[in-house]
Each structure stands twice: as C-alpha cells, then as structure tokens.
C-alpha cells in the first residue's frame, strides 16, 4: 500500500533535520529555529554548529542518525557528489528516514540526480523534493530567498509552512524541475554578470566615472537586479563572497549538458572559469569583472 501523504506541519511535532551549515545554510536554519521547529543538524566538524546549538539546535553524528530523528531532512551542500553521498550513501539520509519522511535538497545539483533520489525515496515509501535557491547570503540572512521546487505538488504544498520562513517557494513541476529552473536562472545571472562587468570596464576605458555611469544606466533598459546587487561592488573591487565563483562554473557546466545550443552560457562559463584558474574560485561572483580588467591590461 502506498504511503499516505504526511499530515500538515505542526511546529510542536514536526522534526527538522539539516545538513549543510555554511554561509547560507546557517542563516536558513536560524529562521526555522526562530519559527519554533525542533531542528537537528549534522556537520562533520561539530564546532561549526556551535552558534546554532546556542539557538536551540540539536546535533547528530551521521546523516543516517539525523534522519532517524527527523521527519523532514534538508540538504544544502556543495555539489552533486556531496548530495549523492549524503542522501544515497550506505550511511545516508535515506538509509535512516522512516516511511512517510521527506528529503528536500536545496543544493544546486543535477536534474537527473534529483529524479534518481525521488525514485529511491519512493521505493522506501518516502518523498523527495528538489528545491535549489536563488538570492545569495543576503537573501538567506533576510529570509528572502526564492526556492525553485520540483517533486510531488502535494508534498511541496505540505512543506510551505517551514519553507516560507526562508523566502518564496515557486513550484515548477515534477522531480528535477527545481534543478532545471535553477540552471536556467544561472544562465541568465551569468550572462548579466559578464555584461555588467564589460560595461563597467568599457566605461573605465572610455574615461567615464564608473559610479556616474552606473547611476545613469541602472534605471534604464540595462538595469537589473544583478546591477543593483553587484554594480558598486565591481566598481570598488569588492569581491567578498556572496556566492562562490566556482559554484557558478559548476552550474553553467550543467547547462552545457542540456540538449540545447547555449553559446552565451558557454562564454559566461569561460569568464568564471578564468576566475577559478586565477585562484579566485572562493571569491564572489562579482569578481568576474577582474577577468575583463585583466583582458584589457588593467590592474
């Protein structure tokens, strides 16, 4: 008999598990704790969870142990290999999650892997949702992320009470649809970032004040969220990480695996790969302007 859909969320009874407490994950967990949920976190280094423990989070010693004490397990990690190991591994989440449990992978990962996880979850009478996010660390801190959700629509709807503490949920369709949506998002964001970088470099080479140039164009047709978020940082050479350059290289690499001709995405990937090759993979994505500056012989 097929496992029934879970009952509606009740903060006093629903147990949340979380894996991935980096820059964004820690902020996201904080919002869930503040909403009254019981949260257990797993990190290879327990010292990383100290601040969350102060806020009330519990800890587990393995993904399996975390799943055994959770009704819903969120993952927010680095790449598809991490996701596969943490969810499908011998000591992974799905080895410990009880029937009716739910996994929510918020990592930017592969649509095919999201479908594989969904199929394996159903074999265990569990549910899986892929819900990668957009909004960076600022969106995570402010609870204003956009989450692109793929999976069973009723399960995604059931998750709204907890997920809406982190931002806006956009349901995109069946398993893998959230990941496909995120890749499309990154194609647009990458192209916008490269265009903005070249616009700034052109303004500087043309002898314009780049700050005045940015003010002049930001409210016209060239204006965008990317320009508002990263324009001043590019001009000031502030490459503090809001989203790692190496991660957008990963995302644009997944775009290259799609059955579509995407020359613009390929060009954007080359720019960000230039950052990584220069040792700037852990810098913010706005640092792509440094690649354009080097190409133009600027310091």
From TrEMBL:
Report a single Gene Ontology molecular function.
oxidoreductase activity, acting on the CH-OH group of donors, NAD or NADP as acceptor
Q: Which UniProt keywords apply?
A: Membrane, NAD, Oxidoreductase, Transmembrane, Transmembrane helix
Its transmembrane ranges are 16-43
Tell me the ranges covered by the 6-phosphogluconate dehydrogenase NADP-binding domain, including all copies.
15-168
Q: Where is the active site?
A: 182
Q: Which domain of life is it from?
A: Eukaryota
What protein name does the entry list?
Answer: 6-phosphogluconate dehydrogenase NADP-binding domain-containing protein
Give the species.
Capsella rubella
């Amino acid at each position: 008999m097929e496992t029934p859909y879970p009952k509606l969320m009740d903060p006093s009874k629903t147990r949340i598990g979380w894996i991935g407490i980096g820059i964004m994950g820690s902020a996201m967990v904080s919002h869930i704790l503040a909403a009254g949920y019981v949260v257990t976190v797993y990190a290879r280094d327990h010292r990383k969870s100290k601040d969350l423990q102060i806020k009330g989070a519990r800890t587990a010693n393995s993904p399996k142990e975390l799943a055994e004490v959770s009704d819903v397990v969120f993952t927010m990690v680095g790449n598809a290999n991490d996701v596969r190991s943490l969810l499908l591994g011998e000591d992974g989440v799905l080895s410990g999650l009880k029937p009716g449990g739910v996994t929510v992978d918020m990592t930017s990962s592969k649509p095919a892997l999201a479908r594989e996880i969904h199929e394996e979850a159903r074999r265990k009478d569990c549910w899986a949702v892929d819900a990668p996010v957009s909004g960076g660390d600022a969106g995570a801190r402010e609870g204003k992320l956009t989450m692109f959700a793929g999976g069973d629509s009723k399960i995604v709807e059931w998750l709204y009470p907890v997920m809406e503490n982190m931002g806006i949920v956009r349901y995109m369709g069946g398993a893998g649809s959230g990941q496909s949506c995120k890749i499309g998002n990154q194609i647009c964001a990458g192209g916008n970032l490269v265009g903005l970088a070249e616009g700034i470099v052109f303004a500087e080479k043309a002898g314009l004040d780049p700050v005045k140039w940015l003010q002049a164009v930001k409210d016209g047709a060239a204006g965008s969220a990317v320009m508002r978020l990263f324009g001043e940082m590019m001009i000031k050479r502030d490459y503090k990480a809001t989203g790692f350059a190496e991660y957008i290289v990963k995302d644009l690499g997944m775009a290259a695996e799609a059955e579509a001709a995407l020359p613009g995405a390929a060009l954007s990937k080359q720019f960000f790969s230039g950052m990584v090759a220069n040792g700037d993979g852990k810098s913010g994505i706005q640092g792509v302007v440094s690649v354009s500056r080097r190409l133009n012989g600027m310091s």
